[in-house]
Amino acid sequence: MVFAHTRRKAGSPINRDFRGSERFDRSDRGREVRINARIRAREVRLIDEDGTMIGVMPLPEALDMARQRDLDLVEVSPMAVPPVCKLMDYGRFKYEQRKKENEARKHQKVTELREIRMKPRTGEHDVQVKTRKIQEFLAEGDKVKVSVLFRGREMAHPELGRVLLDSIANELKGTATIERSPMMEGKMMSMIVARAPGWEPQKKTAVTSNPAPSQTNGNE
């Protein structure tokens, strides 16, 4: 026997009948949200769809009221005595809840650990360029691991890396805080910096070019 499967439109109530045919999300099962026929209490304290307290009544009466209003009966406080239930369009409630969660994720910034590498004898100009890059990463909300890589005989002079990292930390005063002080890791000496509390990067201003002067006819 083949059963036709109909998909319920998002936002529509799920209490078209009270014969246990409602569909539930797995997330609802995990949180044990009871709605409609899944509610087991003999009586409930009912709140209507506008938030008005109706009072305590037998469960069948509350279910009947939900069906008459084409809404769902949702158990919102299962530990209360008796449990508190609310009339609502549960499908639409779930839809709006997911929509808000998705919007929150879009605006949520995930902090990354970026890395800037240098050599012990990196030139001053290159150090300034890399320092500006560190500030760009900090402006984006990321943390930065600033590393100095030693090769060959450079391993005998780790103080050069310490001097370089200290100079960068000095340049970043007011911009960054040192989360981890310089330390040796194999052939690298590194420190980790994060955005300083209250520091706001300067907004880039658009440069407007001056309009070209109008040319006049030499006969005027």
Account of the protein in words:
- By secondary structure, the chain is α/β, with parallel strands linked by helices.
- The chain folds into 2 domains: 26-101, Translation initiation factor 3 (IF-3), N-terminal domain (Ubiquitin-like (UB roll), Roll), CATH 3.10.20; 113-195, Translation Initiation Factor IF3, CATH 3.30.110.10.
- The chain contains 5 helices and 8 strands; from the N terminus they run αββαββαβαβαββ.
- The protein has a 4-stranded mixed sheet, covered by helices on one side.
- The chain starts with 25 loop residues before the first helix and ends in a 25-residue tail after the last strand.
- Residues 1-30 and 216-220 have low confidence and may be disordered.
Write a brief structural summary:
The chain is α/β, with parallel strands linked by helices and 220 residues long. Helices cover 29% and strands 24% of the residues.
Number of helices: 5
Provide the number of structural domains: 2
Mean pLDDT across every amino acid position: 81
Order of helices and strands: HEEHEEHEHEHEE
How many strands appear in the DSSP assignment?
8
What CATH first level of the largest domain would be assigned? Alpha Beta
Unreliable stretches? 1-30, 216-220
Give the overall silhouette: rod-shaped
* Spatial sequence of strands, sheet with the most strands: 2-1-4-3
CATH-assigned homologous superfamily of the largest domain: Translation initiation factor 3 (IF-3), C-terminal domain
Give the end-to-end Cα distance, rounded to a whole number of Å.
96 Å
CATH topology of the largest domain: the name is Translation Initiation Factor IF3
What percent of residues adopt helix (DSSP H or I)?
Answer: 25-40%
